[in-house]
Specification:
Nitrilase/N-carbamoyl-D-aminoacid amidohydrolase, six-stranded mixed beta sheet, 17 strands, alpha+beta, 13 helices
């Protein structure tokens, strides 16, 4: 019997037996399930999940097919106006190719790169304070107008100015729907010291409800080196994870982007859209390799579309009927929010104790 069975389940000579009456031959279930589980959650009697899980996976009101675009994007350093025009051109191209959602990299609007002034001062320099924007603001209004015209969702990275403190900036990614700005995620895991000199970390992990389904956003280091954030977004109901990133072209970066995308997709049973920058800035070259991936059974992760190092857009269609079928064999969210809720409590307690000790 699967070790994930609830406490009231017992094992009797190769059978998974529910004391409340049901039983199932383990060999039969193993033959039926592509993951090889002897007992599925449904037949072993796992507690059903909160409604957020059903909403994330099987909500009949959500589209079964969603077409997404991910842009290998070359921002124009210190020319936000010209960069914004490029973003608009790619949004038009995405609409022409039938995309419901198009994703741009981390700080795409602001040509993310090192700043000697910020590093020297240990805080945002005057130029960055001046060119950062509020959300909603001028750039989101322009993109939002086009999104409304083309009936498309857009996510792009930008420097956000705090509405209550003009000296505080965030490394943010904004989600714009045809109806307007849905919200923005502020990067939590900032690179040290390159980003901490300029930005303040965010303090929320939001999941955004759209007519495409729930979308979770993480940014670069949030995603690649901190798997907890993707897990939280998935537990909160996201069925699409979006990763705007600004990853330089160091040895092995391209495969790392692809492999991590597939791991996050597989372990959370979600689709993942990663978008990275290309080109050169300040002597550094960006890795590109934007990728769209999803889970696969049998196997481990499937690349749906993958870019190289040149500017351009990749497009893939996400099949949520297929995702629901896979989830039916491994309803991990139901387990973690139902019969295995204790595990979530244990992990939360352990992280809290680690944080408390680190703060002493």
């Amino acid at each position: 019997m699967s070790t994930l069975a609830p406490r009231w389940a017992t094992r009797t000579r190769g059978r998974c037996r529910d004391p409340r009456g049901g039983k199932l031959e383990a060999t039969e279930r193993a033959a039926l399930g592509p993951l090889g589980f002897a007992c599925t959650a449904r037949n072993a009697g796992f507690a059903r999940s909160p409604s957020v899980v059903a909403h994330a996976v099987n909500d009949p009101s959500l589209p079964k097919l969603v077409t997404v675009g991910s842009v290998n994007f070359d921002s124009i350093p210190r020319d936000k106006t010209a960069t914004l025009e490029k973003i608009l051109d790619f949004v038009r191209d995405a609409s022409h190719q039938g995309c419901d959602l198009v994703v741009f990299p981390e700080l795409a609007l602001n040509a993310w790169g090192e700043c000697e002034e910020c590093s020297a001062e240990g805080r945002p320099c005057g130029w960055h304070l001046e060119q950062a924007e509020l959300i909603p603001g001028p750039a989101t209004e322009i993109v939002g107008s086009l999104a409304r015209e083309l009936d498309i969702h857009v996510i792009f990275g930008m420097e956000e100015r705090d509405p209550y403190d003009a000296g505080t900036l965030y490394n943010s990614a904004v989600l714009i729907a045809p109806e307007g700005v849905v919200g923005a995620y502020r990067k939590i895991h900032l690179g040290i010291p390159l980003e901490t000199d300029r930005f303040t970390p965010g303090d929320r992990v939001p999941v955004f409800e759209t007519r495409l389904g729930a979308i979770g956003i993480s940014i670069c280091y949030d995603f690649y080196n901190n798997p907890e954030l993707s897990r939280i977004l998935a537990l909160k109901g996201a069925r699409i994870l979006v990763n705007p990133t600004g990853s330089s072209d160091l040895p092995g970066k391209g495969p790392m982007i692809t492999y991590t995308t597939l791991v996050r997709a597989q372990e959370n049973l979600v689709y993942v859209v990663s978008s990275n920058r290309v080109g050169e800035q300040g002597g550094a070259r960006w890795a590109g390799n934007s990728v769209i991936g999803g889970p696969a059974f049998p196997g481990f992760g499937k690349t749906l579309a993958e870019a190289g190092r040149e500017e351009g857009m990749i497009v893939a269609t996400l099949n949520f009927d297929q995702l629901a079928a896979w989830y039916d064999w491994l309803p991990w969210r139901e387990w973690r929010l139902g019969a295995q809720r204790y595990a979530t409590d244990i992990i939360a307690r352990e992280f809290s104790e680690i944080a408390d000790k680190a703060g002493r």
